[in-house]
Amino acid sequence: MDKVTIVIPTRDRADVLRYSLQSALSLTYPNLAILVSDNACIDDTAEVVARLQDDRLTYVRVPERLSMTENWEFALSHVQEGWVTVIGDDDAVLPGGIERMLAIANRANVSAVRSATHMYHWPSILEGEFGSLNLQMRTGHRVIKTAPALQSVLDGKSYYKYSLPVLYTGGFVRTEILARLRARTGRVFNGIAPDVYSSIAISQEIDRFVYLYEPLAIDGQSKHSGGRAALAPAKLNGTHYLEPAKKFISELGSSRHPKAPLHADGSIPRSLQLVFFEAFCQASSVLDLANFSFDPAAQLALIEEEARWSRQSVNLTPWIPEFCAANEIGPGDAKRWRRWAKRNLWQRQVKLLFLMQLSVSKKAGDLENPLKTIEDAIQFISVWSLSQRDRVREHVISMRLFLKQKLIPSREK
């Protein structure tokens, strides 16, 4: 029986980590290991872990604060066999998720599996009394070839989370793939967003993987989510995100590639395409990616168009000359790519709507452990999909993708 390790990097988030650990320890897969990597926490993280006293649980700690990327790399260096997944300290692996992943991987004979995720917004992120659980109700899977999928993401036609073998919540990879990657490049993670970089690097070690529409995990969004704080559209961020964003940016260190400049105030331009661009530049320095079509001017056109969609083009205006200088392109070079960028991003949006067509949003349950609502979610999905399937279709047709109905109230401890 394959060993499966859940890696949980954490930094001063004991309030949510305890729930993530409780959820992980409730899993019944026999050959399970859970590794917590403490990024020099100054809260009671160590005590939270120590109180659990479970043989499956390993705790490691760095003596001084690292960037998120370096902490992930440190954590993964302790995993040597079987399968591994990395989850956030406010995330959870679903009951039965590991067994489901292994069954699909063995049947398809692949070394990486990526799944959709349910989304749990903790009450702190909504600045209210209730959390919100967004349930993905699709089933089935598909085998994706990594080379064309990577080019599609570069072209802005696809979103990396749903097209590449990301080693983060919902993503599982065999450790021998990571060992090969580490032998070639010296590491598994790099850049400002380690999960994004992993999607590119791993895709160069395998030619295919399975994408599972049925979620294997819950992606939690809480007040601690630094990546969201630094990169999500400003209109989605409340004041509680200011400190996590500052921490995330201040700890980037030398991990950022120089071809992806920051704003004058040191903040990261809020563009997912830019994050992918930065990761691709990082990967290009250690991997042979010459076969992929990659033009910085085309990437700038995608970044600008993405910003227009999120109504942030004004914020990019003073930054664009910095990008042009870093990539040795002229200020007008992106213009000829604008129609191409617009068309491609529309394709990406259509794909996202298709992936979301059987999603339903619910208020999360009033339980001691908010993430324990995953058990209720599983029951709810089975009942909902049988009794409300036609209603969901009607809402999809009318483009009302989320059904707002209160379930049970939830409070974040």
**Based on CA inertia axes, which overall geometry fits?**
globular
End-to-end Cα distance, whole Å, is 37 Å
Task: Specify the biggest β-sheet.
Answer: 11 strands, mixed
Number of strands: 11
H/I helix tally = 18
How confident overall, as mean pLDDT?
Answer: 81
Measured as a percent range, the helix fraction is: 40-55%
Give a quick precis of the structure.
The chain has 18 helices and 11 strands. It has 413 residues and is of the alpha/beta class.
What does this structure look like?
- It is a single chain.
- 42% of the residues lie in helices and 16% in strands.
- Strands 1, 2, 3, 4, 5, 6, 7, 8, 9, 10 and 11 form an eleven-stranded mixed β-sheet that branches.
- Helix 1 packs parallel to helix 2, helix 9 packs across helix 12 and helix 12 packs antiparallel against helix 13.
- The C terminus is likely disordered.
Key phrases:
413 residues, alpha/beta, eleven-stranded mixed beta sheet, 11 strands, globular
Please describe the topology of this protein:
Blueprint: E1 4-10, H1 14-25, E2 32-38, H2 45-52, E3 57-61, H3 68-76, E4 83-86, E5 92-93, H4 97-108, E6 112-121, H5 123-126, E7 132-136, E8 141-145, H6 146-154, H7 160-163, E9 171-174, H8 175-185, H9 194-203, E10 208-221, H10 226-231, H11 242-250, H12 272-284, H13 296-309, H14 313-316, H15 320-327, H16 338-355, E11 359-363, H17 373-387, H18 389-397
Parallel strand pairs: 1-2, 1-4, 2-3, 6-10
Antiparallel strand pairs: 4-9, 5-10, 6-7, 6-9, 7-11, 8-10
Helix pairs in contact: 1-2, 9-12, 12-13, 13-16
